[in-house]
Structure formats: structure tokens, C-alpha cells
């Protein structure tokens, strides 16, 4: 409410007087849209025009993209993003390297056929928090994740174990990652073999071969981590968990799946399959 009053350049009492007066239906719709826009901007400050437009329309409020753009411009509402720092991978090891089966084909006709994974570093006052994720290439959903104060194959295996537990994928699933030792180790290969998952790895020194997994961490840092200061690893972990489960998977629209959220897209696929 305070942000809305600042944008309108009125006092709180003036806002309520303005709100309660008799106004046209068009003004009422604009007031409703502005209130929703401010609410979403406060909650998701890094979301830009396209994301906000689809979140609003998917929520049942009719609004054109141009209209929302004019409103954002009028009240100087824009995404707040900070540049993400670079993540490096330790590919200097003697472990076997799997062939690149994806070859940058990041499409999948149904969930549970192609997964990708990656690791990143989150700064806290206690030191680094390491996060590993598993993402489905069909639904764009983060299906597994794990956190640790150590970066090793236990971390990546834990993320994969959670993904398998939650999704119960069929045999023949392909899992793709970079060549990091955390994915090339015997420990991780044993986890893949246990669930009959075929391993695929990026070519040496080519981050674009795993662009979809790395894109998630870019979103995470731009939309959450780089806007925060974490005192403890537990604080960072709880915040990232909430980002994945209550925003990225359930609300955030993705252009690659028709500007739906991953969960909404999965529901759509189930409806089509049942028809």
C-alpha cells in the first residue's frame, strides 16, 4: 500500500478517499490492474513486462500487453535485476566422459524423457551454499534439487534421487549435464544406473550444450539471490526452496511452453492425454 501511495503521489488518507469515491467502470478496472501490478512487482521485483502480463492474465484479469506497458511506464515500474556472477565447472578429472546425446536438442514431447542438471554457488555470511538441480526439458519444471556446504557427487546424487522419487520416470530417461567431476564420478554413475537412466554430457568447454540448466540459475540469481543478502545457509536454502516450489514451478510463465507455468503445462498435457 505504501508503494502504491508513493507511485500515485498521495497520502494514505487521500488514497482511501480516492478509492471510495464514485468512479467510472474504466477507472475501476485501471485501479484494479494497478493494484495487482504493484502487488506482483513487490513480490517479484525482477519480473519484466512479458512475465507480469502473463501472470496477470493467467490469473483471470483481462489486460493487453500494450495497456500494461503504458501503465508500467506511467508509474515507472520496471524489473529490478542485478548481473549474475559466472559459475565455473571443474572438468579436470580422470573420470570417464559420456557422449553428448542431446546435441542441443532441448525439446521433449512428454515429461520424464529428458532431464538436465547443473550446480551453482550461493554466497552467505557462513560461506558458500552449493545447490544442484534437475530440470525436465518438456515441462521446464525443476523436479529435483539439493543443497550442501560441500560440492561433491553426494550433492548431485541427492538432487537426482529426489527427482526420481517425485516423478517416477519411465525407463529410457536421458540425463544431461556438463563434464564436472560431480556428474562424472563413479558415485553419480551408480545412481544413474540404479534407475536405468542414460547419461549424456556436454562437449568440453561449451556451456551452450547445457544452456537450459544454466538458464534456471541465471533466473534464480537475477530474480532472487542477487537481490538478497543471506546471513546463513539455512536462510538461503529456505528462500530458494520457496522460489522453486511457490513461484518458478507454479506461477512463473515460460515462453517455451506457451507462457504457462510448468505445473499448468503438465496439467494441460494430462488433459490432452485423457481426452
Residue fraction in strands: 5-15%
Silhouette? elongated
Q: Which structural class is indicated by helix and strand composition?
A: alpha/beta
Question: Would you count the extended β strands for me?
Answer: 5
Percent helix range = 40-55%
For the sheet with most strands, the description reads: 5 strands, mixed
Order of helices and strands: HHHHHEEEHEHHEHHH
What is the distance, rounded to the nearest whole angstrom, between the alpha carbons of the first and last residues?
45 Å
- Given as residue ranges, the uncertain stretches (5+ residues, pLDDT < 50) are 84-88
Q: Over the alpha carbons, how many angstroms does the gyration radius reach?
A: 22 Å
Quaternary state of this entry equals single chain
Return the average pLDDT rounded to an integer: 85
Q: Helix count, per DSSP?
A: 11
Amino acid at each position: 500500500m505504501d508503494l502504491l501511495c508513493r507511485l500515485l503521489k498521495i497520502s494514505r488518507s487521500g488514497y482511501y478517499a480516492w478509492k471510495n469515491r464514485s468512479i467510472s467502470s474504466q477507472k475501476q478496472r485501471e485501479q484494479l490492474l494497478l493494484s495487482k501490478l504493484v502487488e506482483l512487482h513487490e513480490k517479484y521485483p525482477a519480473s519484466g513486462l512479458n512475465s507480469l502480463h502473463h501472470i496477470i492474465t493467467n490469473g483471470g484479469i483481462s489486460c493487453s500487453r500494450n495497456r500494461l506497458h503504458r501503465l508500467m511506464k506511467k508509474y515507472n515500474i520496471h524489473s529490478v535485476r542485478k548481473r549474475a556472477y559466472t559459475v565455473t565447472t571443474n572438468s579436470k578429472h580422470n573420470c570417464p566422459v559420456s557422449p553428448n546425446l542431446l546435441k542441443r536438442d532441448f525439446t521433449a514431447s512428454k515429461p520424464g524423457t529428458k532431464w538436465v542438471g547443473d550446480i551453482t554457488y550461493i554466497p552467505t555470511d557462513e560461506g558458500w551454499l552449493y545447490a544442484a538441480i534437475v530440470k525436465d526439458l518438456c515441462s521446464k519444471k525443476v523436479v529435483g534439487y539439493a543443497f550442501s556446504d560441500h560440492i561433491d557427487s553426494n550433492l548431485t546424487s541427492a538432487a537426482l534421487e529426489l527427482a526420481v522419487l517425485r516423478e517416477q520416470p519411465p525407463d529410457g530417461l536421458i540425463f544431461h549435464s556438463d563434464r564436472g567431476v560431480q556428474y562424472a564420478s563413479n558415485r553419480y554413475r551408480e545412481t544413474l544406473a540404479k534407475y536405468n537412466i542414460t547419461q549424456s554430457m556436454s562437449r568440453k568447454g561449451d556451456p551452450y550444450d547445457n544452456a537450459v540448466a544454466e538458464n534456471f540459475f541465471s533466473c534464480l540469481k537475477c530474480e532472487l539471490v542477487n537481490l538478497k543478502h543471506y546471513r546463513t545457509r539455512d536462510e538461503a536454502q529456505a528462500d530458494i526452496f520457496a522460489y522453486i516450489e511457490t513461484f518458478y514451478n507454479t506461477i512463473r510463465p515460460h515462453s517455451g511452453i506457451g507462457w504457462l507455468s510448468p505445473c499448468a503445462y503438465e496439467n494441460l498435457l494430462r488433459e490432452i492425454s485423457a481426452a
